[in-house]
């Protein structure tokens, strides 16, 4: 990995604008999933460093929270510009530690930067209200204030964008942040911290704890009385644990958890549009996103036409190391991810699924899996109820609109759903009946800074991005002025 800006490759804990080793000098290795090579040995933060980071955030919050929003926004805007200036290096770093193709990585960096730009501006729009008083001698006012010190816990599949989507609105609101990035991908987090320091963030506003001790650090972050808010993206299973732990101090939570996204292809859909959109949703990041197509429901009248085109398109996807220009499918993140896909595939085949394309590990490397299509899927298969998180298209057949809705909603999750139709009446009806926080209509890519991102049911609650995103980091204070003459 040859970075133009070599200072982006940081390996220590970042607290109070200082780079520190772990108390016990412990480290852990970060590996490139494409070839298994070691990228770096990174400091392994402990509970002691977590306490230090919280203390630094508490101290700076006293001044950062009262800093004018315009001033905070100017620092965020500088951070945004530095991210853009270093976009190629950040993308290479991302591909090296996470595995996604370089073109996708560059897209993620730009997407991540867009949150910094957006909230640099949105911080100046956290308006209060003057409420008409029910009595003559009182005036009723509300203002919005930063909630306090925030703990952010982010996943490995989007190691730039999932960070900026949380910390940018927190900074804009006036909060200080303690971030625990995923152990598989800490380098992007540390690079963002370096650029944040260069942009002029005061010491303590942004603190980053790379660690292999996720459970221990998570316990501290969710129970510490000085942490006012926890924002987590990850599995529903872990989200439940964090909810229980946070209950001890009644923290505000934002949870973006698991998904089980259906894609519905109705018989009046444009086949080329449906194929393109489904592939975009399913195979981005080798199927490792929470909004990936998990179940592809095809109406029986269009099934043959759709499948012929879909198989041809999937067969042409190029698998390999993400640094190569023509690669579209990179590796899975680690061996456990490969084993999960293989287990789900074995279960599906044992229950009647038929492999029509792929279905095994790729010869590109130990962590690569072939772009796969399986048919004859049903609700009894484990992949119908669990996130596949791999490049496997599970195909189901339905007859009626009512059946499609019932199949789509038959899950505890409710993050994203997609469907394809040319009928406007059907589009409104289906969109309103799908029990999901996000719905893509004739489109497989649905995430934009300006739009709210979040789910319902056991996919969590709270919204990130959009004008709603900053509200998650603020409280409303009501003030009653009496004795008005």
Automatic annotation (TrEMBL):
The lineage of its organism: Bacteria, Pseudomonadati, Bacteroidota, Chitinophagia, Chitinophagales. It comes from Ilyomonas limi. Residues 19-478 form the Aldehyde dehydrogenase domain. This is NAD-dependent succinate-semialdehyde dehydrogenase. Belongs to the aldehyde dehydrogenase family. GO terms for biological process: gamma-aminobutyric acid catabolic process. One of its GO terms (molecular function) is succinate-semialdehyde dehydrogenase (NAD+) activity. NCBIfam families: SSADH. The active site is at 256. Gene3D superfamilies: Aldehyde Dehydrogenase, Chain A, domain 1, Aldehyde Dehydrogenase, Chain A, domain 2. Keywords: Oxidoreductase.
């Amino acid at each position: 990995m040859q970075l133009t800006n070599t200072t982006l490759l940081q390996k220590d804990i970042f607290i109070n604008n200082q780079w520190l080793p772990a108390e016990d000098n412990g480290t852990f290795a970060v590996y490139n999933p494409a070839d298994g090579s070691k990228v770096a040995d990174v400091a392994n933060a402990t509970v002691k460093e977590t306490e230090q980071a919280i203390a630094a955030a508490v101290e700076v919050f006293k001044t950062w929270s009262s800093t004018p929003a315009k001033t905070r926004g100017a620092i965020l805007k500088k951070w945004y510009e530095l991210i853009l200036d270093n976009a190629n290096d950040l993308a290479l770093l991302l591909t090296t530690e996470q595995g996604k193709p370089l073109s996708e990585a560059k897209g993620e960096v730009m997407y991540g930067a867009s949150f910094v730009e957006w909230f640099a501006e949105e911080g100046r729009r956290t308006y209060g209200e003057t409420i008409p008083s029910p009595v003559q001698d009182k005036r009723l006012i509300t203002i919005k204030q930063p909630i306090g010190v925030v703990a952010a816990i982010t996943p490995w599949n989007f190691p730039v964008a999932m960070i900026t989507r949380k910390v940018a609105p927190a900074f804009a609101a006036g909060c200080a942040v303690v971030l625990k990035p995923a152990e598989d991908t800490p380098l992007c987090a540390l690079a963002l911290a370096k650029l944040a320091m260069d942009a002029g963030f005061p010491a303590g506003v942004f603190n980053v704890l790379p660690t292999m001790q996720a459970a221990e650090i998570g316990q501290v972050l969710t129970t510490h009385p000085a942490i006012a808010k926890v924002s987590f993206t990850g599995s529903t299973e872990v989200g439940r644990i964090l909810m229980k732990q946070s209950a001890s101090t009644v923290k505000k939570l934002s949870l973006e958890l698991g998904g089980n996204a259906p894609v519905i292809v109705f018989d009046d859909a444009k086949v080329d549009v449906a194929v393109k959109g489904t592939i975009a949703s399913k195979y981005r990041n080798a199927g490792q996103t929470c909004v990936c197509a998990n179940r592809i429901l095809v109406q029986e009248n269009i099934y043959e036409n759709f499948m012929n085109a879909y198989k041809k398109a999937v067969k042409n996807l190029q698998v390999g190391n993400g640094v190569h220009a023509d690669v579209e499918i990179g590796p899975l993140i680690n061996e456990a991810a490969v084993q999960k896909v293989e287990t789900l595939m074995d279960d599906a085949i044992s229950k009647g699924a038929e492999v029509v394309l792929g279905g095994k590990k790729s010869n590109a490397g130990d962590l690569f899996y072939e772009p796969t299509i399986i048919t004859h899927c049903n609700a009894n298969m484990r992949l119908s109820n669990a996130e596949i998180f791999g490049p496997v298209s599970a195909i189901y057949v339905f007859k009626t609109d009512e059946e499609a809705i019932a199949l789509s909603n038959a899950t505890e999750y409710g993050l994203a759903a997609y469907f394809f139709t040319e009928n406007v009446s059907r589009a409104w009806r289906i969109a309103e009946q799908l029990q999901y926080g996000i719905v893509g209509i004739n489109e497989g890519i649905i995430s934009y800074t300006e739009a709210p991102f979040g789910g319902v049911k056991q996919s969590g609650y709270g919204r990130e991005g959009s004008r709603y995103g900053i509200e998650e980091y603020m409280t409303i204070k009501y003030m009653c002025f009496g004795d008005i003459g």
